[in-house]
Design a protein that fits this description.
The chain has 14 helices and 14 strands. The chain has helices at residues 15-22, 87-102, 110-122, 130-150, 154-157, 177-189, 203-217, 233-245, 260-269, 283-291, 302-319, 333-344, 359-362, 391-397; strands at 3-13, 41-43, 47-50, 57-59, 62-71, 76-81, 165-173, 194-198, 222-226, 250-252, 273-276, 297-298, 352-354, 376-378. The longest helix has 21 residues, at 130-150. The chain binds magnesium ion (MG). Magnesium ion (MG) is lined by residues 226, 252-253, 278.
């Protein structure tokens, strides 16, 4: 069997479509609470950025890039390279670089294809970023093909099934303690047993919101706080102690992650776990942080690592007794499905991120719905990724060529 065709689609599900289909904002923005409860932003039309800190640029829409690989036996596999902004950049990388590297290859050479393709751009200084995202999409599409060729779900080819259901946490955000508590209660009402608060406010603001949410949801719900690199080492430790008193499970992204020594100092000072890693795509980027104990929980994103490198990172983490909580964020529905397959086959899996209100909108490029129930994705025996793309729908949302 050989790969004979590659097509890449950069797509955008517009804000209006997203809002009408789910009644909620669709972006991966951390401030996706009610419209009135967001920090001020610089708005560029389709994209925007928070005014109060050096933080990520976000889209008002849902955007990503998917790749369709086809074999000489007419099997079609789909994968996603998470592209929360500028998905046409990723599409070009697929067409100009990934295509020549994958055409003619046997799809069962999954690791060999990734390793060769990674090496193809390493010496040129592209060991991460958009190029590695495209390799992640390619890798997931190869798993989809191999699963369909063998009649097995992707997780059976990626190490086997460790669990039958995937525990999720729902993300939410805001600046007003009462409104964030309302959102928390809404998600608990939908069956979630774990919630993560994206809090783009100062240390005391985080502590106030955290206290309001804990009071509202009670002691049995698992709570986490993501502060998006806005704290200093000392404020992170002070904040962490307040969150420990509220029985929070982890403090996420406290400071600039390139300060590994500072990160390790926070992790050492706190009893609670420190979780980071969504921006890292390879084990090479993770190694020093693991060695220096800068992470208690690693949260790489399968839409950026693929299943192959995602497992390599998880295995390396496991040798340091570090559990895995995969990030999904702005990932589309194929990234969600790939993360479910990864999580089913990951021994040190802990919990997976999920965007409850955006899921139906993301799944609008599929033939059948794909959604969790009562706070879990249930692992199935459907071959490959377990989802099938509706190409007409996808083309409807795709950027023209
Ligand atoms: Mg995060």
């Amino acid at each position: 069997m050989k790969i004979t065709d590659l097509r890449a689609y950069a797509y955008r599900i517009p804000k209006s479509e997203a809002a009408s289909s789910v009644g909620a904002p669709s972006t991966d923005s951390p401030s996706h609470g009610s419209a009135a409860d967001r920090p001020p932003v610089d708005d560029f039309g389709d994209y925007f950025i928070d005014q109060s800190a050096f933080t990520s640029i976000y889209s008002h829409h849902h955007e990503s890039t998917v790749v369709r690989l086809e074999t000489d036996t007419c099997i079609v596999g789909w994968g996603e390279a998470q592209s929360p902004v500028a998905p046409r950049v990723t599409r070009t990388i697929f067409e100009e670089l990934v295509k020549p590297l994958v055409i003619g290859r046997d799809p069962f050479d999954i690791e060999a294809i990734w390793t060769r393709a990674y090496g193809a751009m390493r010496e040129r200084g592209h060991p991460t970023g958009f190029y590695i995202d495209a390799l992640a999409g390619m890798d997931v599409a190869l798993y989809d093909i191999c699963g369909k060729a063998t009649g097995k779900p992707a997780h059976k080819l990626a190490g086997g099934r460790y669990r039958d259901r995937i525990l999720l946490y729902a993300g939410m955000g805001g600046t007003d303690p009462k409104l964030v508590a309302d959102e928390a209660e809404y998600h608990v009402g939908h069956g979630y047993k774990a919630l993560k608060l994206h809090l783009l406010v100062d240390r005391d603001g985080v502590a106030d919101i955290a206290a309001a949410v804990r009071e509202r949801v009670g002691p049995s719900i698992k709570l986490m706080a993501d502060v998006h690199m806005r704290q200093t080492v000392s404020s992170s430790i002070e904040l962490g102690r307040k969150l420990e008193a509220l029985d929070f499970t982890w403090l996420e992204s406290p400071i600039d992650p390139s300060d590994i020594a500072g990160q390790a100092e926070i992790a050492r000072a706190l009893d609670m776990a420190v979780a980071i890693g969504e921006w890292s795509r390879t084990r090479y980027e993770m190694r020093e942080a693991f060695e220096r104990r800068a992470y208690d929980i690693v949260m790489h994103d399968i839409g950026r690592t693929g299943i192959t490198e995602g497992h390599r990172i998880a295995t390396l983490a496991d040798t340091y007794n570090i559990p895995v909580a995969p990030h999904v964020g702005g990932g589309g529905i194929l990234a969600v499905a790939a993360t479910v397959e990864f999580s089913a086959s990951c021994p040190n899996f802990m919990i997976m991120e999920h965007s409850h209100d955006a899921n139906a909108m993301k799944a609008s490029i599929l033939k059948e719905p794909y959604e969790p129930k009562d706070g879990y994705f249930h692992v199935t025996d459907t071959p490959g990724l377990g989802v099938e793309v509706d190409e007409e729908k996808l083309q409807e949302f795709s950027f023209p060529r």
